[in-house]
Amino acid sequence: MSRNFELLQRAEKDQELFKTYVTPRPEPGYAQPALKLPRPSGDEALKLVQRVFLLPNPESPRAVVFSGATHGDGCTTICVSAGQALAVQTPGSVCLIDANFRRPSLHRLFNLDGRVGLAEALGHSGPVRSYAQQTGTQNLWLVPSGSAETNSTSPLASERLRSRFADFRAEFDYILIDAPPVSLYPDAVLLGQLADGVILVVESNSTRRETARKAKEALEGASVRMLGAVLNKRTFPIPDILYRNL
């Protein structure tokens, strides 16, 4: 990981552009099983949650937004993997929230009904847990995006967002939010201002350097705490099994 961090710094010519967590690119022909954490991506998700959520610090983040620099950076996969790893590592309740109203997908990954969720929680009263569905893991919950119209203004513009976000915080021990790309929509910034921070996902050899830089600057300009960056689909010059033992 230190080698990759140095390479990223050199490419950006900026000593503090990103703190980096790495998820490697699977080998050709690799098929990821549904709702499991295959190695090595499971190992990397575990490292991520240990370094972000499970620090021996009372102020460790409890509500974190995951957002890509642009479409296709793998943000949803990283968010789900982190949520699953966190649910295994802690007895507390973990809630995944799909805030990507334009491209909702979390409910399909878990084969759950996505018609009622965050949009309804923002538009109606009632306990927020009533908008959550339990996944196959006992302490892992999912709040789908709900039935928001994709062409309308994002439900996150609701004046009730702050109070409902506080309700989710009170109901669940950990909250992981899958948000749309920082560079394309304001949603990640709106949520990041209420959460404990944002993890930015960029894809190796795909995300443009300037796009990643602008996404970082947009978060900083809105006084959103950036917890780090995940460099997704990193291609290693040595076999995976050897890299894990370095």
CATH class, anyone? Answer: Alpha Beta
Structure class = alpha/beta
Which ranges are low-confidence, i.e. pLDDT below 50, for 5 or more consecutive residues? 1-40
How big a fraction of the residues is strand? 15-25%
CATH superfamily: P-loop containing nucleotide triphosphate hydrolases
Q: Helical amount among residues, as a percent range?
A: 25-40%
Major sheet strand order: 1-8-7-2-6-3-5-4
Categorize the overall geometry.
globular
Biggest sheet layout = 8 strands, mixed
Radius of gyration: 17 Å
The total number of structural domains is 1
Just name the CATH architecture: 3-Layer(aba) Sandwich
- List the helices and strands in order: HEHEHEHHEEHEHEHEH
Distance between the termini: 10 Å
CATH topology heading: Rossmann fold
| Average pLDDT rating | 80
Give me the count of strands: 8
- Tally of separate helices: 9
Topology readout:
Blueprint: H1 2-12, E1 20-24, H2 41-52, E2 63-68, H3 75-89, E3 94-98, H4 106-109, H5 118-123, E4 133-134, E5 140-143, H6 161-171, E6 174-179, H7 187-192, E7 197-203, H8 209-221, E8 226-234, H9 240-244
Parallel strand pairs: 1-8, 2-6, 2-7, 3-5, 3-6, 7-8
Antiparallel strand pairs: 4-5
What would you note in describing this structure?
Helix content is 34%, strand content 18%. With 246 residues, the protein is α/β, with parallel strands linked by helices. The protein has one domain (2-29, 40-244): 3-Layer(aba) Sandwich (Rossmann fold), CATH 3.40.50. It has an 8-stranded mixed beta sheet with strand order 1-8-7-2-6-3-5-4. Helix 2 crosses helix 3 (75-89). The radius of gyration is 17 Å and the shape is globular. Mean pLDDT is 80; it is low at 1-40.
